[in-house]
């Protein structure tokens, strides 16, 4: 900065300080109220560093060590378990490669614009979700509290999944893997295979009986599963240690937790492509079924996946971006993270279906072998004629094409008798069409495939360590969405709050490690987040585009970024995104109403899953989860609208961190644009006794940047006081 600019800046600051000192020296000695004013004045002579033009007087809020660390944090939060076990399922279910078209369109319409919006408000106001939405509109301050509640609900069961992954990770250090074969049961007379395992499969049995030891229904608690209780405790200890210092501790862990999953996915992809049948899986995956694209359900599920894949509404995006510098290019970050998320989903889909193609090939070979033996037996006993079998067929080493040829011939020749023969078609496509998602994919289908890998324990360790890291990355953002807003608003110590939060969450989370805990995980996953988060993001969009003003917000972005964002975002935020989100909300409510509320229970005697409806108390819990998550929005609206709480005590005052000390700003100044939480209307404000000592900018004086939350402490309070001559100042 030029030297003369520094001189002008220093003279300006000296003039400001002298003006304030003159005012304070003329105050009425009896004015005790003003003596207790929260205005603090920094004397320039005690500062060794000049503030240069164009630079921010940054507060002492923690900051990211580097841009890479911040990007990895946002990627770690947005890229989670859903990318691995939800996106591939949706892609297969909704038209294969054709599903990518609606997904990309909706990513451009609601994904990137809303992600950019959350990054922008967090970076501009530099507070967590509670502080941000209080600043935008005090009556909509409940949006931030609702985000915290949803984050807490999600954290409760999400960490249970990390606990499951830790359990499988700990059991992977043995050969053969414990879920490779069905266990044998011995009695006095003989040894036999466990009946529950024999009716299902080794991996299914291990998941439901050895890992979860699951009960037959939600109502049968069955007591705590001590193995999973210890794993849940370990998961919460990991989260607590990583988060106890905020981004100073979690930021360093991001280098491993965010990058390691990509190393594992690439290793799995290379290994998977070398496996027999992997290309069948990938070909099946990306074969487009264009007719399915016209179904509304496909677009609804694509919009839902876009919405949750980026972590919108949780508050984690806002919390992470609040630790950025105000001039950071958050538009670039929004586009970069969104497309990293998308390509990660595609990479995970390639890996999943390469491995599932290999698994389907193995199952298909077993099917061909078993049915070939049946055909030989039918030929021996004379039920089939040898003449119908082509001469080149060798049943001892029959190929899939040869078997299909024989199968078709037998089916045509013995039309009426064919069903009684009990032969199967053995098509790889039939096996690949058995869509699996969620825990069924990770802990059953994928684990079964890995048992056929050479060096299977190594791949199992890598896979479940990847799941742990994917889960932890998302958990860091989720917990940050709880901790940051509370610390910003109520000024509690982050270390103490983190420990208390993790401890309380662990104690409540014990309901998920009962024998019936898996059913509670399903309940929370279905009802605690979907509708509340949609409502939260719709209100966020309305708060910016209608309440705060889209034109004003675009000006703020221009001031912050140094350039005007494309008008595309203006129209998306003001018109398109709210309408799309509203349709998505209505569609989700309709879908929830049409789908019978229930869960898939594992019936031990049958060794199969069976759909059961929730008991009456279960329905009450489901409804309560949705109501509790969104309840802060109307409560805060009513409280602020009706002035039911007096904020004059300063308990909700905003705080600026500046040069080593805290400058408290009164929360009851409605006209102060720098105040973070507005409390009262101007007519109710207490005023000093000596005659309305309100500081006003002098005409013609240079303008200081008074960014949100008081970059310069209290700055100049703009007030129109016609009864006070300007000479009085």
TrEMBL record:
Keywords associated with the record: Glycoprotein, Ion transport, Membrane, Metal-binding, Neurotransmitter transport, Phosphoprotein, Sodium, Sodium transport, Symport, Transmembrane, Transmembrane helix, Transport
Main location: membrane
Protein topology in the membrane: Multi-pass membrane protein
Organism the protein comes from: Platysternon megacephalum
CDD domains (alphabetical): SLC6sbd_SBAT1
NCBIfam families in UniProt: Na_transp (NF037979)
Transmembrane segments: 70-88, 100-121, 142-169, 226-247, 259-282, 302-323, 335-356, 458-483, 495-513, 533-550, 571-594, 614-639
GO MF term set: metal ion binding; proline:sodium symporter activity
Residues annotated for Na(+) binding in this entry: 76, 79, 83, 341, 470, 474
Assigned GO CC terms: plasma membrane
Subcellular localization, as worded in the UniProt entry: Membrane
Record-given protein name: Transporter
Catalysed transformations (reactions): L-valine(in) + Na(+)(in) = L-valine(out) + Na(+)(out); L-isoleucine(in) + Na(+)(in) = L-isoleucine(out) + Na(+)(out); L-alanine(in) + Na(+)(in) = L-alanine(out) + Na(+)(out); L-asparagine(in) + Na(+)(in) = L-asparagine(out) + Na(+)(out)
Protein family membership: Belongs to the sodium:neurotransmitter symporter (SNF) (TC 2.A.22) family. SLC6A15 subfamily.
Coiled coil: none
GO biological process assignments: L-leucine transport; neurotransmitter transport
């Amino acid at each position: 900065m030029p030297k003369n600019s520094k001189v002008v800046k220093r003279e300006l600051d000296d003039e400001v300080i002298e003006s304030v000192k003159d005012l304070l020296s003329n105050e009425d000695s009896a004015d005790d109220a003003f003596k207790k004013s929260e205005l603090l004045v920094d004397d320039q002579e005690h500062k060794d560093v000049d503030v240069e033009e164009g630079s921010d007087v940054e507060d002492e809020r923690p900051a990211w060590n580097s841009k890479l660390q911040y990007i990895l944090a946002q990627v770690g939060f947005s890229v989670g378990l859903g990318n691995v076990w939800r996106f591939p399922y949706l892609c297969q279910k909704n038209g294969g490669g054709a599903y990518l078209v609606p997904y990309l369109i909706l990513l451009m319409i609601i994904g990137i614009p809303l992600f950019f919006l959350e990054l922008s408000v967090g970076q501009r106001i530099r507070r967590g979700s509670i502080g941000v939405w209080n600043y935008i509109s005090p009556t909509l301050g409940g949006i931030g509290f609702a985000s915290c509640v949803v984050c807490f609900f999600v954290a409760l069961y999400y960490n249970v999944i990390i606990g499951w992954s830790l359990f499988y990770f700990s059991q992977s250090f043995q050969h053969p893997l414990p879920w490779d074969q069905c266990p044998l049961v011995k009695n006095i007379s003989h040894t036999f295979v466990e009946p529950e395992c024999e009716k299902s499969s080794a991996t299914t049995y291990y998941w439901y009986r050895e890992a979860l030891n699951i009960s037959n229904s939600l109502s049968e608690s069955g007591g705590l599963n001590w193995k999973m209780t210890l794993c849940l405790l370990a998961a919460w200890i990991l989260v607590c240690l990583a988060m106890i210092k905020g981004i100073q501790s979690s930021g360093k862990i991001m280098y491993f937790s965010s990058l390691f999953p990509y190393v594992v996915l690439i290793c799995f992809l290379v290994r998977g492509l070398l496996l027999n049948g992997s290309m069948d899986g990938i070909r099946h995956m990306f074969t487009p079924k264009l007719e399915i694209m016209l179904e509304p359900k496909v677009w609804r599920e694509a919009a839902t996946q876009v919405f949750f894949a980026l972590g919108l509404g949780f508050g984690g995006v806002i919390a992470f971006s609040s630790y950025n510098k105000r001039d950071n290019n958050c538009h670039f970050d929004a586009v970069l993270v969104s497309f990293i998320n998308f390509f990660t989903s595609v990479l995970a889909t390639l890996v999943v279906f390469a491995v599932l193609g290999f698994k389907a090939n193995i199952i298909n070979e077993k099917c061909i072998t078993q049915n070939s033996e049946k055909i030989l037996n039918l030929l021996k006993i004379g039920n089939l004629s040898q003449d119908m079998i082509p001469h080149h067929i060798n049943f001892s080493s029959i190929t899939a094409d040869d078997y299909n040829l024989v199968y078709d011939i037998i089916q045509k020749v013995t039309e009426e008798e064919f069903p009684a023969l009990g032969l199967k078609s053995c098509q790889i496509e039939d096996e690949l069409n058995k869509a699996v998602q969620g825990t069924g994919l990770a802990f059953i289908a994928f684990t079964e495939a890995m048992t056929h890998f050479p060096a299977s324990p190594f791949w199992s360790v890598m896979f479940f360590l990847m799941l742990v890291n994917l889960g932890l990355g998302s958990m860091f953002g989720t917990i940050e969405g709880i901790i940051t807003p509370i610390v910003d608003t109520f000024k509690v110590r982050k270390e103490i709050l983190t420990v208390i939060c993790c401890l309380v969450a662990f104690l409540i989370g014990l309901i998920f490690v009962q024998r019936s805990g898996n059913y509670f995980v399903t309940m929370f996953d279905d009802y605690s987040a979907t509708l509340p988060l949609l409502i939260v993001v719709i209100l966020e969009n309305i708060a910016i585009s209608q309440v705060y003003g889209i034109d004003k917000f675009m000006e703020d972005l221009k001031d912050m970024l140094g350039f005007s964002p494309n008008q595309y975002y203006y129209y998306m935020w003001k018109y398109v995104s709210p309408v799309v989100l509203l349709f998505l909300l209505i569609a989700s409510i309709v879908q929830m109403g049409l789908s019978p509320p229930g869960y898939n229970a594992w019936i031990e005697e049958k060794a199969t899953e069976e759909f059961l409806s929730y008991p009456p108390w279960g329905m009450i819990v489901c409804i309560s989860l949705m109501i509790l998550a969104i309840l802060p929005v109307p409560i805060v609206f009513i409280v602020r609208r009706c002035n039911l709480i007096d904020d004059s005590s300063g308990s909700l005052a905003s705080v600026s961190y500046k040069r080593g000390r805290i400058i408290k700003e009164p929360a009851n100044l409605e006209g102060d644009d720098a105040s973070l939480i507005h409390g009262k209307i101007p007519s109710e404000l207490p005023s000093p006794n000596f005659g309305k000592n309100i500081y006003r900018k002098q005409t013609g004086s240079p303008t200081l940047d008074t960014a949100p939350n008081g970059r310069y402490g209290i700055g100049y309070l703009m007030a129109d006081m016609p009864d006070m001559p300007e000479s009085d100042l």
